[in-house]
Structures are given as C-alpha cells and as structure tokens.
Amino acid sequence: MRSVIDILDLSTDEIGGLIAVAEDIIANPAKYENVCRCKKLATLFFEPSTRTRMSFEAAMYELGGHVISMTDGASSSASKGESVSDTAKIVSFYADIIAMRHPKEGAALVAAKSASVPVVNAGDGGHCHPTQTLADLLTIHREKGGFSGLTVGLCGDLKFGRTVHSLVGALSRYEDIKFVLISPDELRLPDYVKDDVLDRKSIPYKETSSLDDAMGELDVLYMTRVQRERFFNEEDYLRLKDCYILTPEKLRGAKSDMAILHPLPRVNEISVAVDDDPRACYFRQAANGKYMRMALIMMLLGLHA
Ligand code: NCD
C-alpha cells in the first residue's frame, strides 16, 4: 500500500509511465471505462477547491468507479474535534483510496500513517501539491516535447504557492533545467526549497523581481496567484496582490513558443486578453489534471486497462 504525499514519492520513471498512460487515456478513453469498477475514491477536502476535487471525482467516474465525498470540513466530524488521523483510519473502511486537501502542512502525511488505503495529498497548506504537478508535467511534456534543457520562469507567490514547491522538486530531476524565480522580495521561494533542492543538486537559478527582464529567456512561464489565505495580514496581501499582471503587451518580449501555465484559479495575474494567445496553456493544463489523476489512481490501486 502506497501513498503520494510529495511529488518525490514518484520516481522519474514512474512519472514517465503516468504520462504515457495519460496519453493513452486521451487517445483511447473507452479502454479505461471499467478499470475501477467496484472501487471507491473518498475525497476529503478541508479547504476550497474546484479543479482538484472535481477532476479527482471525474477521474474516478471515468474509470468506472464510485466517489464518496466530504467537501466541507465544517459539515464533518472534524468540526467536532476529530483528528485527521482518526478520520483517515475510519474512511479507509469505506473507500479504496483517499484524496485529501487540508490547510495544515503535513496533514496528508499524518493521514497516510493511519490510513489502511493509499492517500493522495491534494494540497497541504503552503507545502506541496503533487497532483497539480502531475498536471503541470503532462502539460509541459505535451507543449514542449519533454523537460530537458528548459528555462522555466516561476512568477508570483513563490513563498506560499505549494504548486511551485512541488514543481521545482519535480523538474529538478531532469537534465539541464534552469529556473528564473520572479517574485517580490517578501514572496521569494522558501530557503528549504532553495537549499534542499536547487543548491543540493546545483541547479542553476536566479532570483529577480522583474518579469519584463526575465521574459525573453523563458521556455515556460508559470504564473501563480498571491495566496491570500496564507497571509497573516490583509494589508500585505492588498499591497502585493497585483504585483504581476501578464498582458499581451508584456508578452511581446517572449519567445514565440513559450508555454504559459497557471494552476488556476487566477485572480488578476493573467489578463483575459491573453487567453486566445496560442501560448496560453492554462485551460489545457486544467484538463490534463484529470488524465494524470486517472493514471495515478490506477497505479496506486495496481489496476491496468
Ligand atoms: C492551486 C492550489 O490549490 O494550491 N489550485 C489548484 O489546485 N489548481 C493554486 C491556487 O490555489 O492558487
């Protein structure tokens, strides 16, 4: 029995395998429609979500399985004081696999320790979000043909953005990757990611607060939302929230084949005028999340088409 709490719980070979399965699902969806017959996914979401929860649920339905769902911590026994550990133990009696999102860093790991079925971390506070990274990786693979040799710009809230932390870890395992970390000073990538991932592996990166200066060298631009819910004080959020707004004018300096990603939801970071640009991949990215979650559910349940 195996859980996925961090993207590094999956080897690069396994990620390659998940991408291959996702591509096959896209090409031959009918082949997969009964793979999870009689299996149940439990989605336990203690924080808001649209894409992650619904794509997990759609993934299980498209594999022929069933879903039981807790969409609001306030309506569950968590509001009576039940621990994550007890909840996970109990839900293991009802479901074959659990996807869990929680505002506390480490909550999914705690759940996995007491669950007797696989637990997938669907976001733990400002820490990590491995299945968003699977969506990001499939998108980069489809748009750029692979990962090696890319210069990847990460822009916005690199401090609290859990999708950024997981993506940096995942991409750092491929050849000749470079990062440009674009953020205001207050929202820089945490030291634990810089020290444990970038410095330890001698991955080249630079930090800047100017998106304009970085634009021309990027193969991938990963925009992010300023994570309001993680701020201690609303004034700081209001001051930083619109620090980067991608517009068609800003894109004039970009490569003609740069891929623009965003985990979504966006607030103001990408003007809607960018949506029709062929480089805008963020809606395709949201669609890709479902296929990678289908591939992951099958892998963790040991099922094949
Ligand atoms: C992200 C998250 O929840 O961390 N959303 C998502 O899962 N697609 C990004 C965000 O909320 O900004």
Question: Could you give a quick summary of the protein structure above?
Answer:
With 305 residues, this protein is of the alpha/beta class. It is built from ten helices and nine strands. Helix 3 (84-91) crosses helix 4.
What is the arithmetic mean of pLDDT?
97
Helix tally equals: 10
Strand content: 5-15%
How many strands in all? 9
Profile the largest sheet. Answer: 5 strands, parallel
Structural class: alpha/beta
**Computed Rg:** 19 Å
Instruction: Return the CATH class of the largest domain.
Output: Alpha Beta
Helix content: 25-40%
What's the arrangement of strands in the largest beta sheet?
7-6-5-8-9
End-to-end Cα distance: 20 Å
CATH topology of the largest domain: Rossmann fold
CATH-derived architecture of the largest domain: 3-Layer(aba) Sandwich
CATH homologous superfamily caption of the largest domain:
Aspartate/ornithine carbamoyltransferase
Q: What overall geometry do the principal axes of the alpha carbons give? A: globular
Uncertain parts: none
Bound molecules: N-carbamoyl-L-aspartate
Order of helices and strands: HEHEHEHEHEHEHEHEHEH
**Total domains, how many?**
2
